[in-house]
Write a structure and sequence with these properties.
- Helix 2 (13-21) runs antiparallel to helix 3 (24-32).
- The two termini are 17 Å apart.
- This protein has a single domain (2-133), classed as Adenoviral Proteinase, Chain A (Adenoviral Proteinase, Chain, 3-Layer(aba) Sandwich), CATH 3.40.395.
- By secondary structure, the protein is α/β, with parallel strands linked by helices.
- The chain contains five helices and five strands.
- It has helices at residues 2-6, 13-21, 24-32, 89-98, 117-133; strands spanning 8-10, 43-49, 63-69, 77-81, 102-104.
Amino acid sequence: NPNLAGRTQFVDPLVASQLSWGDTLSAFNDIVHDRQGHDTADFLFLPVNDADPTDLDRRGSHWSLLLVDRLNRHSPVAYHYDSSGSYNAGPASQLAERLGARLEWPRAPQQDNTYDCGVFVVDATRELVRQLTQRERP
């Protein structure tokens, strides 16, 4: 669906981290605006990590996914999919707040080990894109 593809942004993990900890406005504008400067991003897929750039001992051990639905620009909604319960609740809350989005916690498949979180992020992304292409709400 080329129309959906043009309105969807898959955010690089480093940029997502910058949104959480750095200059939010500049990084955010780079993501949501097209080359002509129009705000075209309705859906943002952001990987969330528990790393803390202010503490070199916390390099991050878990990934989760934040899908931000910006169809209503005045009231965006962020959906946090975490395969380890609420492990990344703090980082997801911080990122959603910095993006001005209301945070919701939909159910997500849960991992049964300590190392498959990245696979769950990829699988969740794939499933959510499938739902979007079928015009389902995330």
